[in-house]
Design brief:
single chain, six-stranded antiparallel β-sheet, mainly beta, OB fold (Dihydrolipoamide Acetyltransferase, E2P), SH3 type barrels
Length: about 190
Amino acid sequence: MATTADISIGSYIRYNGDICQIMEWQHRTPGNLRAFYQGKMRNLRNGKLAENRFRSGEAVELLRIEVHELQYLYRDGDNLVCMDQGTFEQKYIPASLFGNAMGFMKEEMVVQVGFESDTPIFARPPKTVELQVTYTEPAVKGDTANKVLKPATLETGVEVQVPIFIEEGTVIRVDTETGGYLDRVKK
């Protein structure tokens, strides 16, 4: 067990049975009260932010998390088979760890996976991906009001909202966290 003095920004702790990453960590000593640590942390299971006060010297379960960059090879049932690019070792990562971003993933992408003693506990796809539009309705001439969006189906099968000037075959950049269109990729 570690104490609150051992924690820093970016550390991983077990809080209320969930694994959380420390986003902000401040030591406070208000007037005539005892000192405490104010922590803001992100729950890795559901992505929500939580804040808590910890007494100085309070025991905290500090976790040792190793983050690896793995190449996504293919899907095998409920798991993704990913390969360590240094050792060429293949690991099975549950697809549920990627959440909604799974719809934007293509084979051969490099993803980040966090392990706690050989057990994957979180996974992150790349922040942005470049995908080709496979289907979208043609633009209506004269419909150029401010920020008109239309649905477009991408090569992975996911549907996103894109500006009206995007046509079939266009490669676009998409934010994997929000699922929103960022820009058109010029090649």
